[in-house]
Amino acid sequence: MLLSVENLSKSYPGPEGPVPVLRGVDLQVQAGATLALRGESGSGKSTLLHLVGGLDRADGGRIVIDGQEVTALDDAGRAALRRETIGIIFQQFNLIPSLTVAANIAFQARLAGRHDATRAAELAEALGLTEQLDKYPEQLSGGQQQRVAIARALAARPALVLADEPTGNLDEDTAAVVMDQMLSLVTETGAALMMVTHSPDLAGRLGRQLHLRQGRLA
Amino acid sequence: MTAAGLAALWSHWRRNPLQLFTLVAGLALATALWSGVQALNAQARSSYDAAAAVLGEGRFDQLVPRVGDTIPRDTYLALRESGWLVSPVLEGPLRADDARIRIVGVDIPSVPRWAGSDAQDQRADSPRQDRDAIFAHPGIVDALAGITEYPVIANPDMAPDTAMTDISVAETLLDRPDALTRLVVARVQPLGLPDIATVAPDLVRRAARQSSDIDQLTDSFHLNLTAFGLLSFAVGIFIVHGAIGLAFEQRRAMIRTLRTLGLSLRRIMLLIALELLALAVIAGALGVAMGYALAATLLPDVAATLEGLYGAQVAGVLQLDPAWWLSGLGIALAGAVLAGAGAFWTIARMPILATGARAWAVASGQRRGWQGILAVVLVGLAGFGPVLGGGLLAGFASLACLLLGAALALPLVLDGLLALGERRAQGVRTQWFLADTRQQLPGLRLALMALLLAMAANIGVSTMVSSFRLTFTGFLDQRLFADLYVETDDTAQGAALQRIVADRTRAVLPIQWVDTQVAGQQAEIYGARVAPAYAENWQFIARDGSVWDRVAAGEAAIINEQLARRADLWPGDGVTLSPGRTLPIAGVVGDYGNPIGQVVIGEPLFQRLFPDVAPERFGLVTDDPDGLRAVLETELGLSQGQITDQAALKAFSLDVFERTFTVTAALNVLTLSVAGFAILMSLLTLAAMRVPQLAPAWALGMTRRSLGRLEVLRAVVLAALTLLVALPLGLALAWMLLTVINVEAFGWRLPMYLFPGDYAVLGGLSVLAALLAALWPARRLARTPPSDLLKVFANEG
To answer: TM spans, by residue (chain B) (predicted)?
Structure first.
């Protein structure tokens, strides 16, 4: 089992006391599997993704990724997990604006000590970025920026890819193309994918769908 | 991983070279101004130390003649025979080419080991024939070697224009056989010695340090310089703080991304610290080099200032000291830490999932409450500071509180003024302009604070200097009312002069005095031949009745302001001139430029109290100065150098005075320039952030050109509003300098005058600086391609 989530809970402070966002979520993902997380706004999809990615700390419950208990790790341990095991793709791309496309693609792989120039070039070619490698993110369209983010996540050869509305900022046609490329590459690398999306069509292209409603899996 | 992280962080600077330049230049300028001033101070202090090492001044008690400048050798021998451990010194001036050299002759076997000076050690250990050597400051070796057969050895430890040698050599060089000028008293003396007043009644004992009022004065000068250095440094640090804050703000998203990609917060902090360290070292090295250049440029004026004001000699060539380099780098690092601390703290507490890019303005807005409270507390402390504690340091602490408090209050005051304007604005364009200007305040606040400090310092110091100049000019007119000042060779020639000029002058005013102690203070008692000219010219700070009549009758005395303030003596109080002889004080007179206390009594009383003193110097009031000069030269054989006319003396005094403040004026200009630079850099750095704010206005029908013009107008308006705050702040600064700092440092309280014309010029210059600083960013904005403005509205490309 690559990912195991047990009885996960999380609240955020509100004006009238803590507001529960996740209320005892249980979830398991096999290596190489793909999973879509759906739900209304505020249902806790992104929070679950952030907790799995070690970007936030749970109030209760347990998360284990590839044998490591995420919920027991300190800041440095969670950073190491993200660096070496997880690839994250955000809706807002989150590229480093001062680095070129090539440097952005190679960045996480270099942090993880797994940089492979050939692999980076292959990803760039597969995503149609070969002509853009020397450009800076601000010189790219939104679709191109998201492709760079996908290449960056996959270049480090993560076991688990987390994607938070990866096409949410793209028009319909571009979103379809980017999605095709992402799924194809994820399948090719053998990584597991957990993706948050509102779109039933996109969710339908993944192996499994889960619905979050008021902090619980429906 | 570290390399990748560093490369990512560094890439920000590579993409934002202007921001990097601002940071490095700001830190370098701050370091330069600080280290330049420190270099000046260090150089001047090392010169005093060298002088003190050679002369032993200030470290040992000394015996000096009560009258004149010669101690008979018999007096010295009498003291030695009575058991007193004293060592003779003969010193005097020697002309060599154009140089005026101070020759100091000491008696090696008897001199106390006062200084551990190399020259002295070399002499004590050298063979007899080498003891004839003269150890001289390197600057005068050639001149000295040209006029003497004795070997002249360069010694950098010597004070400027000073040479030390054996007393027998000094006697020959100065042509004063068997003469001594002072005796140095060893600290440890045998028990049961007779009283010095019994053995040598003609000598006065000056306690260690008391002979060195100059230390106090030069210290206050250095403190002034240091305060300005610190102020300039603060202005620079405001720039650095702004640059670092902005860089951190812009990198906030990057740092969040780095963390999501697997760099731990601790490592990111470490990398940023390393980056800042590297930048601080580079900027520090640049700053130290610039500081050296600044110090080397200003040193001649500092040397002239100290010599002119206090008679302290400073070498005119700057020497490099490793400690100074290191302290320069240290202050750059400290400045970087100071400026970066807030940003570091913010990053350390920033959650990894901070939503969106929090605007700088919002972050600043949250600080406003605390900033306002701190500003009020600091200004309050400044107000109560002089009341709660005395001393120069307390005065400067109050000044610091005042300036910092006002700087912190500035953004709040400007925001209030702009909000008021916004509420009252009629036109929509004006309303938008004022609202948009308010929005810019957080980004410009540090540059505006720097401008405020620079303007306030400029107003404060120029008010002080101009008040001083006005007072000093009036003082010179009061004091230098005689038409000729004459210095005779001896008292016999002095007596002859009085006979010769009696019928050719309106008044002959002998200048005669004794050094003594009055009310526990070192002081001079002058015997004045009261003439109408005194009553016509002297002005009193405080007086009691007809001052001059009472002084002429020997019934009262006049004292100077220094003595009045230090000993708290005022008209009506009594001043004791000698045991059993106390006179009431009839008047207190301002006495600018003189470090010690003075008492003026009538000549008849002076002669009764000090019958051995006869005048050698005179002021002559005449209708025909040129004719009288010719008479003195022909009939008395006086040289031209012995006769000084009033105009030349005034011109010399004013020249000394003008040079005195050259250094502070230069620092003022530099500080204002640095503030202008801060505005320029802030506007340039903010220019990129302005596009999303201005794009809607452009889309709604304003041209790029008019937007550019409004940017210039905005800088001018902000500078003008800052000037409104700077004016009262600068005047408060001047008031504190004149009434607190000056009294503490010099013992005088100067009247404060206002100079509206000067302030208008300064205001004009400041607004002009802001206008010039805004031109380039505004031009860039006016030329922003429409495609860039359109990007603001495009979510997808």
So the answer is: 225-248, 268-295, 324-348, 369-388, 394-420, 441-461, 669-691, 712-739, 759-778
Query: What's the pLDDT tens digit per position in B168-202?
Result: 888 888 888 878 888 888 777 777 888 888 888 88
Residues B492 and B638 in one domain: yes
Q: Is the pLDDT of residue B412 over 80?
A: yes
pLDDT, tens digit, for every residue of B101-119?
Answer: 878 888 766 655 443 444 4
Note whether A111 contacts B260, CB cutoff 8 Å.
Answer: no
The whole-angstrom distance between A188's CA and the closest CA on chain B is: 22
Q: In what helix (H) or strand (E) does residue A83 lie, and over which residues does it extend?
A: helix A75-85
Q: Under an 8 A CB cutoff, do B796 and A103 touch?
A: no
Q: Which residues of B touch A111 (CB under 8 A)?
A: 1, 4-5, 261-263
- Residue range of the domain that includes B284: 1-56+228-358
B524-553 pLDDT, tens digit each:
899 999 988 888 888 888 898 889 999 999
Q: Is B689 at the interface with chain A, CB within 8 A?
A: no
Token pair 């369209």: residue: A141
Q: What is the pLDDT of residues B688-713, one digit of tens each?
A: 667 777 777 777 777 888 888 888 89
Listed as own residue / partner, the contacts of B709-713 with beta carbons closer than 8 Å and 24 or more positions apart are B709/B778, B709/B782, B710/B433, B711/B683, B711/B774, B711/B777, B711/B778, B711/B781, B712/B771, B712/B774, B712/B775, B712/B778, B713/B433
Please say if the pLDDT value at position B134 is more than 80.
yes
**pLDDT range class, residue B121, cuts 50, 70, 90:** very low
Contacts 24+ apart (CB under 8 A), B292-296: B292/B35, B292/B36, B292/B39, B292/B318, B292/B320, B293/B32, B293/B36, B294/B32, B294/B33, B294/B36, B294/B670, B295/B35, B295/B36, B295/B37, B295/B39, B295/B40, B295/B43
Which one-letter amino acid corresponds to residue B180?
L
Locate the domains of chain A by residue range: 30-50+74-208
A92: distance to nearest CA of chain B, Å?
10
User: Among partner residues A103, A111, A143, which is closest to B262 by beta-carbon distance?
Assistant: A111
Asked whether the predicted pLDDT for residue A75 surpasses 90, the reply is: no
Decide if pLDDT at A21 tops 50: yes
Of B173, B208, B243, which closes a domain? Answer: B208
Candidate from A56, A84, A96 with C-beta closest to B257: A96
Does the pLDDT of residue B290 top 80, yes or no? yes
Q: Is the residue at B223 inside a domain?
A: no
Kindly state whether A202 is in contact with chain B, defined as any CB-CB distance less than 8 angstroms: no
Residue B553's identity, in one-letter code, is A
A55 with B352: Cβ contact below 8 A: yes
Question: What does the alpha-carbon distance between residue B524 and residue B596 come to, in Å, rounded to a whole number?
Answer: 8
Q: Tell whether A13 is within 8 A of chain B (Cβ).
A: no
